[in-house]
Amino acid sequence: MSGGFHYITKYFIMRQLIGFMIVLILILSPSCKWLRSKGIFGKKADTMVVWKARQDSIRVIDSVRKAQERMLALENARQDSVKKAADEWDLKNKFNIIIGSFITPEYARKYSEEFAAKGYKTRILKLEGTQFEMVSAEAHESYREAVARLKQFQDTVIIDAWIYVLGKKN
User: Fold this and answer.
1) Average pLDDT for 82-91
2) 3-class DSSP string for the chain
3) CATH code for the structural domain at 94-165
4) Global pTM?
């Protein structure tokens, strides 16, 4: 019987040793970099990191979208005010002293800049139905003012200047 007892004792010792080894492996394995790199342990932490990164990305995208919407609203407001000012200018100053008419927009722009540098309030007007752009040196509310100023302008600045009357816009 002593041989059987010895066998049973070895069995319990082996069983305890195997149990101890399993517990030891389970305790030490999550800290093993190789096991974590294989994806066996540490997935919850990685998932949380990915989730937080997504949330940050969503916040950044949302703030960029809001900034773009604000910029678009500001640009629309600016364009509306420019259009309103241009419409008011057109209605108020409908008699324009034209100093040049060009098919090439760049020539009109350069000519306008040249006279603006001399102190004139130039403006480029598109002649509807054509490709021409006219350069206006001055604009006046009344026909009488425009004619009087045109005569002075032709005598002192450009003899070929003429008056263009802006029609009402529909």
Assistant:
1) 63
2) CHHHHHHHHHHHHHHHHHHHHHHHHHHHHHHCHHHHHHCCCCHHHHHHHHHHHHHHHHHHHHHHHHHHHHHHHHHHHHHHHHHHHHHHHHHHCCEEEEEEEECCHHHHHHHHHHHHHCCCCCEEEECCCCCCEEEEEEEECCHHHHHHHHHHHHHHCCCCCEEEECCCCC
3) 3.30.70.1070
4) 0.46
